């Protein structure tokens, strides 16, 4: 069984923020594939399923998302290598997309929570959201909406990442990485 997790914060206040790009990708996948909602309170998230594939949007806040993922992982007996986490990354320019297995949290509190609850060797789909001018602005930056110019590209970016995630269901990580990685939004056709 494969588990795709989109990181984000619950509630309409955060819906279109940089931090919620992972939720947008999960929404796209669920819509494209027609996955059905199988959520239960115990999962602490919106959980969808189609065949042997699960899609999770934790409804805990970002900093606590590891608990939701751990619960789903244990309930469905999912191996760590079958978990794919989609998240924002301020260390990448807007629109960049990178894939890797394992690694550090890079200051991302959602990943920090995840690492503490399930370990580090899951696949990460990192989506660049750009970086604020000063480190002290990071929290405000990721909790704000994209700029008008960026907003125009979000739908295409989300579709690209969604297609990459679908490819991960049947292709090797390195093959997906070589085809779907982007250095910036300009690389998106």
Helix content: 25-40%
What is the strand tally?
Answer: 7
Based on secondary structure, the structural category is alpha/beta
Report the CATH topology name: Rossmann fold
Profile the largest sheet.
7 strands, mixed
Question: What would you say the CATH architecture is?
Answer: 3-Layer(aba) Sandwich
How confident is the prediction overall: mean pLDDT?
A: 94
Taking the alpha carbons of the first and last residues, their distance comes to 31 Å
The secondary-structure element order is EHEEEHEEHEHHH
- Determine the CATH superfamily: Peptidyl-tRNA hydrolase
Number of helices: 6
Overview of this protein structure:
The chain is of the alpha/beta class and 189 residues long. It contains six helices and seven strands; from the N terminus they run E-H-E-E-E-H-E-E-H-E-H-H-H. Helix 1 packs across helix 5, helix 2 packs parallel to helix 3 and helix 5 packs antiparallel against helix 6. The longest helix has 21 residues. It is globular, with a radius of gyration of 15 Å.
């Amino acid at each position: 069984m494969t588990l795709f997790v989109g990181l984000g914060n619950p509630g309409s206040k955060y819906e279109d923020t940089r931090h919620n790009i992972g939720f947008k990708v999960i929404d796209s996948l669920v819509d494209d594939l027609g996955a059905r909602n199988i959520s239960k309170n115990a999962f602490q998230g919106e959980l969808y399923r189609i065949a042997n594939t699960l899609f999770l949007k934790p409804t805990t806040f970002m900093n606590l998302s590891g608990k939701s993922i751990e619960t789903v992982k244990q309930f469905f007996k999912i191996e760590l290598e079958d978990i794919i986490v989609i998240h924002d990354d301020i260390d990448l320019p807007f629109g960049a997309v990178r894939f890797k297995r394992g690694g550090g949290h890079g200051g991302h509190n959602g990943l920090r929570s995840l690492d503490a609850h399930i370990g580090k060797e899951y696949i990460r789909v990192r989506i660049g959201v750009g970086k604020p001018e000063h480190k002290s602005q990071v929290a405000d930056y990721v909790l704000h909406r994209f700029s008008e110019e960026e907003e125009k590209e979000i739908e295409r970016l989300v579709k690209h990442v969604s297609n990459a995630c679908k490819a991960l269901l049947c292709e090797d990580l390195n093959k997906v990485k070589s085809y779907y990685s982007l250095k910036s939004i300009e690389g998106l056709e």
